[in-house]
């Protein structure tokens, strides 16, 4: 039984991690493409249109990856988490089905038209298709987060004698207090990713002294989008999420922050330290007293529950991973704000394009927003443990009772191999597109 | 409510097989008949432009099935674990084949992705047929044997095959000779459909030949259909009872028959949409007839202890189903609108449309 759960969880974690590499760029980039196309409509300067089409090309490759890795996600609810699907399907099936009906159709129907239809449609309609693709991808984010929000903080349900969850209030799924903060934070975080990608391609062109005209445009746009979104990700949305976690998942919060013992007179904020699960303390700790209480409750001395206040089987089962994920996300978020502020400052002083140090830094920063997004999700998902539906359904009760671990291991290995191939192809194709540059778009 | 959602989901699935069916078929034809690079390219394009918006119908059907019949979703997806994951992998290989062939311009690269597209299309068509075969044959629900069950009554687990390859043992695998026959029917049908699609959408040099190909395959289809009906009757003597009890259901087999007869006259039609319409009827009639013969059962049980899964004992609560019918109708209308907009803007032959570069 134990290893059955282990492989199911590993497979889910692996496949969702790989899936989420792609939609975060899709969602952020679609917004930036709408922006470029809009500038073109307003100013009729050809380079904006070229920029929109260039990024749409990267978008298209990325989108294909998102689709082919997304279909396994939906299937896995049934294949690996059959008991969970059976018990909660009449609730989370609602939001998942709405995602298919309202967002995937929108996105995929109009993407084809955006890519192939410029001549047939004319500029205004072409802009409209870009807007619809953007709406479709953000709607996907909305519905998938509604699904996840229900798992984090279940609402509008009733549990029958046979253990089945049935929906009693449809509206509650969308007024869930967990949903809006999570959605805004997540969408802004995906804008961070796309802004870094755009800025980094810009920095690359400038440094290589190739397509410099585009390089400057990309860098400038990327830095502005990047600065605004990085700030908004931390405050107010990150903060708002943290308040939700304290309120609805206090055990998860204690573990995220690494609070082993409750402090009577207000909690300190940990900057650095390694959880030591044997002695139940943080090694090599650097912390500032009372800050955490202030950030959470605007009260320096308010008490925050530590892990000592919870039963062993109520605490997340992988506390170090949860703690690191959270600290990596927050640490990276701070670095993004720093770097983007610096870049924006020099952009304003008209010095950025010649400051090679910052250009190199921006160029190599690309993987980090991805890491921040993924560790953010690890925080949410590991913090939800040991439950699938918080407080109500344990993860161990959700797996398919009839699928043996040998089968799951086999498919897990298959996914690993196949996704390695996909990842390699993706990098080659995106690399090639960047290398060819935006100019090759104009025939 | 259950009946409403059953019909909606069945229709969405049928639309999926009609739409994605032509691009599976295109892959099969591509594999066997496309020889010149020019033809290969345009044939791949006739699928490549559309596969994504077609596959969304599968995603939608999956989501709706999850919402409306969660117990069925859980039981079938976990019970057919291995074949489903294989299908996922094939979907991935097919998609990357289509998307990547035109990205680099050297022959070896193209050959690799053409093979990936063709072979996975063929296998997918086969697997989808096998899946339908499994549904009509039924499974050993609960894993019942010697008086005990190893799973809860609505769960089961099938290996890919059993050494005997017989549908008549207590533990048939996913692949046995009966489900294979249905698999071949699916391959042949989709190949005809794909050939018609190529003729409709492209000016490829093999269009003339493809009409003959479709004609011959249609003959094979008739033969396979007869074999399948006989073997179905052997496996389950009750299989046609629904049609004698409710004769109006015979409309579905009649549609199937119309499609087949029409396809025999394929070379006479000047308008290329007509053959495509007939192959659409074959697919529509084939799937709906199978479902109609089972109704209201959606997964028969091969043992007499555990009852079959029906649309009534696997459905979600009534409240859930009725709110869903509210947004579902809006969603379906929107879907129809997108579909029409897209088809109008992309109508005509696609040879000259820019793809990849
Ligand atoms: C670029 C990515 C990124 C960055 C820089 C940040 N986050 Fe984040 N965070 C995410 C990307 C993300 C995410 C991937 O989008 C998550 C996962 C679930 C969600 O809704 O958003 C998330 C979740 C998430 C949660 C919820 C965890 C849970 O559900 O248990 C909290 C409390 C924070 N974040 C807090 C912050 C704070 C205080 C940040 C300060 C800098 C911060 N995040 C930066
Ligand atoms: C919003 C939609 C999501 C839903 C509905 C969802 C649902 C699930 C489910 C059913 C599991 C398996 C049970 C478990 O081990 O907890 C799971 C686990 C997991 N998910 Fe999510 N997930 C979502 C998004 C994500 C994203 C975007 C990521 C990261 C990129 C992620 C990361 C993980 C990880 C790492 C696990 C394994 C946890 C563990 O092993 O303890 N999830 N999630
Ligand atoms: C377990 C959770 C998840 C499931 C079941 C899932 C399912 C899917 C499916 C089936 C597709 C393909 C749609 C198509 O055919 O067009 C897809 C793509 C997509 N998903 Fe996910 N997904 C999950 C997690 C997420 C998360 C957490 C996000 C973002 C917050 C997300 C955002 C998207 C977007 C924007 C797309 C469009 C394709 C792309 O942009 O790459 N998904 N997903």
From TrEMBL, chain A:
TM segment ranges: 12-34, 54-71, 91-115, 127-145, 183-205, 217-235, 324-346, 358-380, 409-430
Keywords assigned: Cell membrane, Electron transport, Heme, Iron, Membrane, Metal-binding, Transmembrane, Transmembrane helix, Transport
User: Which one GO biological process term can you cite for this protein?
Assistant: aerobic electron transport chain
Where would you find this protein in the cell? Answer: Cell membrane
Q: Does the keyword Cell membrane apply?
A: yes
| Pfam families (alphabetical) | Cyt_bd_oxida_I
Q: Note the superkingdom of the native organism.
A: Bacteria
Primary localisation category: membrane
Q: Which GO terms describe its molecular function?
A: electron transfer activity; heme binding; metal ion binding; oxidoreductase activity, acting on diphenols and related substances as donors, oxygen as acceptor
Quote the cellular component terms of the Gene Ontology held in the record: cytochrome complex; plasma membrane
Family assignment from sequence similarity = Belongs to the cytochrome ubiquinol oxidase subunit 1 family.
What's the name of the protein?
A: Cytochrome bd-I ubiquinol oxidase subunit 1 apoprotein
What is the organism of origin for this protein?
Answer: Bizionia paragorgiae
* Classification lineage: Bacteria, Pseudomonadati, Bacteroidota, Flavobacteriia, Flavobacteriales
Automatic annotation (TrEMBL), chain B:
Instruction: Classify the protein's membrane topology as the record does.
Output: Multi-pass membrane protein
Which stretches are transmembrane?
Answer: 6-34, 55-74, 80-100, 112-136, 177-200, 212-235, 247-266, 278-299, 319-341
Subcellular location, principal: membrane
Q: Which GO terms describe its cellular component?
A: cytochrome complex; plasma membrane
Q: Which residues form a coiled coil?
A: none
Any GO molecular function: electron transfer activity
Which first-to-last residue range defines the signal peptide? Answer: none
Q: Name one GO biological process term.
A: aerobic electron transport chain
| Location in or out of the cell | Cell membrane
Q: Which UniProt keywords apply?
A: Cell membrane, Electron transport, Heme, Iron, Membrane, Metal-binding, Transmembrane, Transmembrane helix, Transport
Short name of one Pfam family for this protein?
Answer: Cyt_bd_oxida_II
- Family, per entry: Belongs to the cytochrome ubiquinol oxidase subunit 2 family.
**Known NCBIfam families for this protein?**
cydB
Q: Please state what the protein is called.
A: Cytochrome bd-I ubiquinol oxidase subunit 2 apoprotein
Per the UniProt record, the source organism is: Bizionia paragorgiae
